[in-house]
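Researcher: Quick test of sequence recovery. Tokens follow.
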């Protein structure tokens, strides 16, 4: 049993953690059917492990050096590598508004991502005052680290930058997903508030 298998089994067998990962963190192991038919451009299969309410899906890739990289594919057609293993991916998922951090990355500029992450964290704390407690609860239950946001941004940017060529997501017809980095540096209407 791999470390990814152990983490997934622990999530499955711990309803409180399963519920917290589903909401507010958008990692729902009950939505494994999302992303059917997707694979890597190399033809390598992807193992669906979770989905999120907007229709995106998380996948494990084939094992490399004892680790199974994690790829995400959005319902809007963006996708790529988010971490080198499931533990790292979950630390990013619980510790960072990572999808919006990629969306507002200025094409993958780490400084823009850091600024976006700061704005997103403030907004998240206003909308969910319990987020720090929820993060701590999930981290403790899954033996994960609570990593500073700035470090998570660096890890996410580094992983997403390695999407091409080995982690490009494609459809059954061979159509490639767009890279994970969005071109915007802030929301179009009103900027950061």
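Model:
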């Amino acid at each position: 049993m791999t470390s990814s298998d152990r983490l997934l089994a622990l999530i499955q067998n711990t309803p409180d953690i399963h519920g917290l990962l589903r909401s507010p963190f958008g990692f729902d192991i009950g939505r494994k059917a999302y992303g059917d038919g997707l694979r890597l451009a190399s033809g390598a299969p992807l193992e669906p492990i979770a989905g999120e309410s907007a229709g995106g899906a998380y996948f494990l890739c084939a094992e490399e050096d004892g680790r199974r990289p994690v790829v995400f594919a959005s319902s809007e057609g963006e996708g790529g590598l988010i971490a080198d293993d499931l533990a790292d991916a979950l630390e990013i998922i619980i510790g960072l508004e990572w999808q919006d951090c990629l969306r507002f990355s200025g094409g993958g500029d780490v400084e823009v991502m850091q600024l976006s992450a700061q704005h997103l964290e403030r907004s998240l704390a206003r909308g969910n005052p319990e987020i720090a407690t929820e993060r701590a609860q999930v981290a403790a239950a899954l033996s994960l680290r609570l990593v500073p946001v700035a470090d998570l941004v660096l890890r996410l940017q580094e992983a997403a930058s390695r999407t091409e060529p080995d982690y490009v997501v494609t459809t059954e017809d061979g159509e490639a997903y767009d890279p994970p980095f969005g071109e915007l540096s802030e929301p179009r209407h009103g900027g950061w508030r």
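The beta strands are 39-40, 47-51, 57-60, 70-73, 79-83, 169-170.
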